[in-house]
Amino acid sequence: NRTLAFGPDGMLYISVGSTCNACNESSPExxxxxxxxxxxxxxxxxxxGLRNTIGFDWQPVTGEMWGADxxxxxxxxxxxxxxxxxxxxxxxxxxxxxxxxGGLNPQSTPPGDISKEQWKASSTPMVLGxxxxxxxxxxxxxxxxxxxxxFPAEYVGDAFVTMRGSWNRQVASGYEIVRVHFEKGQAKSxxxxxxxxxxxxxxxxxxxxxxxxxxxxxxxxxxDDANGVIYRxxxxxxxxxxxxxxxxxSAKPPSSKAQLASLDVRTETKQRIKLSSSAFAADAAIPPxxxxxxxxVSPPLAWAPIEGAKSYALIVxxxxxxxxxxxxxxxxxxxxxxxxxxxxxxxxxxxxTEPEGxxxxxxxxxxxxxxxxxxxxADPPHHYHFQLFALDTLLSLPPGANREQLLAVLEGHVLxxxxxxxxxxxxxxxxx
Length: 432
Fold this sequence. Notes:
seven-stranded mixed β-sheet, 2 helices, elongated, 33% strand, four-stranded antiparallel β-sheet
């Protein structure tokens, strides 16, 4: 329950959570924000009455500190709302006896015969509230970036908050990233920004948003502590590239290739690989079990061997995907030259022992191994290009490498290539 950050004043701020849901703490430093000098010689309670402000940051225009506080449980589905507070020196924010804009906790008693009205009078109300029990975690202000994925200028000065998700509620709340809109340095509204981590009906979830960070290129990174992965949210469109400060000399936006993998075959060979699958014909529909809407297993592949090949590499891409084009579904290399097929259902891990030495990279989804077709429901059919390359060498490339890294080491080593294109369309929204 303790998070750390250095403020614009060079002091270390420590958010110390409460030891209980709603109680009179025995230590005055519980449920507070502490301010400590870097040399450890000074340590004060900067603000109190904060049950658990895990996420906090400083507004880039005003320099003021803001934090998202976790509300009290067991007061009902809609009580208490999660709080957004402007955290100022010496102020008390209500917990455990007063919540939100002035609500009173019926399950607590202030110490020393202080009445709840008196406690309320000395408390600072929240600035904005959000759905009860959504569980705010990290909070960061958007300061812009230096890449094409940066958000438009109107996002600079706004904040993002991860909502890890409720447990003390009949209808689930949270499981999302929330945008806090600021005007002239002051918070005005809160709206969902990234959603979709709850299944229909809100009975189960597929992610629990936790950490947030702004990358150098202006994209937003979110850690999911249910699956141990990091999501990247970037902007594609007119008005991208907003920044709030000059870039560091070494900061460079990540490169991307908008076209399908294109590598020249050696002019002295000009060979083509005959690539096929027993699961679908060329330019035909890919069966549902190979999509992420159902089993998500890789389809069987077979090819005619190429003389002189030392290994094979595989790239599977969807050029019809939006906004990321192409969407990379599978990267594999150092497929042994002795093989002329891959069975159905290859393991989704960076290095395989069957076949021995085969390595797999991270596609657009960000995970190693095959990720099946998953076009939006009712989209026109997407085309999935299975591209196989015969190489004159084994590649010196670490497992988990990305598309750009693989293409770079493939250059100049391609003896032959082949392609199999399948189509996939999802017309019915899945029940789960």
